[in-house]
Amino acid sequence: MGSLRSALLTGVRGQIACDGGAVVSGIVDFVVSRRRSLALLSRLVERSAHAATALIVVNAVRCFAGVRCPPGGGALVVARRPNERRAVDGPSARSAS
Asked: Number of structural domains, the chain?
């Protein structure tokens, strides 16, 4: 259990470091500047911790509702993009397509 906790903590720290980078910040600023709804949402989140929490909860429910277990059991993998699906399927799927 300690090893899993350590790996999870390392992953979370890495994600925070990546999300806090100047490149990611620049991308976020660009995307927010292009969509009025995102700019409004961004201002709301900056002003209210409750709004940020509500947004996180809504997104968590959305993600949870979108995950389905495979019919035969087995591992659960969430892959939204085609390149993610190919990576999950492995080399045998690449040679078949």
From this structure: 1
